[in-house]
Amino acid sequence: MTFSQKNAQKEPSQQTMQVESLFKASMKEEAYRCTRERLVILREIYESDSHLDADEIFVRLKKKEISVSRATVYHTLDLLFKFNLVNKIDLGHKHTHYEKSYGVDNHLHIICEDCERVVEVQSDELNKILEKLCQKNGFTLGSFSLQVFAKCREAQNDTRHGNMKP
Ligand SMILES: [Zn+2]
Ligand SMILES: [Zn+2]
Ligand SMILES: [Zn+2]
């Protein structure tokens, strides 16, 4: 530990530290090797507020001069998903995006089909509806991550896009 402010990495949040110990415990339980690379990938996801894909994580780490292979990124993401520490999301790209799930409330993603803007919405009403729907079908609601594809206002007002005739 260094107390120097120079080149100091941002201290991980308490949530990140908690998830790290959960991850370590799960790996130990299932006899996975707890490597520095795996922890670095977990930290990258939990210290970010966006929905990253495997390639984005790889590039971010590369920029920080942390060398991790693409295969390790993919494998670690699978592991994190298996341990319920990340959610998979479909943003309409041809690959999967990931986001932190531990300590995060269930939410809805509204994704703009034109500009790919993503807005996260939490709604008690939606929670209640989903709870009811699950109950009706003999289930108890667990976690969820929903995607809705829509068009944002900016895109609709932007006449440069699309082939709309006046
Ligand atoms: Zn993507
Ligand atoms: Zn848009
Ligand atoms: Zn989200």
UniProtKB/TrEMBL annotation:
Location within or outside the cell: Cytoplasm
Pfam families (alphabetical): FUR
Binding residues for Zn(2+): 112, 115, 152
UniProt-listed InterPro entries: FUR, Fur_C, WH-like_DNA-bd_sf, WH_DNA-bd_sf
Entry keyword set: Cytoplasm, DNA-binding, Metal-binding, Repressor, Transcription, Transcription regulation, Zinc
GO cellular component assignments: cytosol
Free-text comment on the cofactor: Binds 1 zinc ion per subunit.
UniProt main location, coarse: cytoplasm
GO molecular function: DNA-binding transcription factor activity; transcription cis-regulatory region binding; zinc ion binding
Top-level taxon: Bacteria
Cofactor(s) needed: Zn(2+)
One GO term (biological process): negative regulation of DNA-templated transcription
Homology family: Belongs to the Fur family.
Record text on subunit structure and interactions: Homodimer.
Protein name per UniProt: Ferric uptake regulation protein
Species this chain originates from: Chlorobium phaeobacteroides (strain BS1)
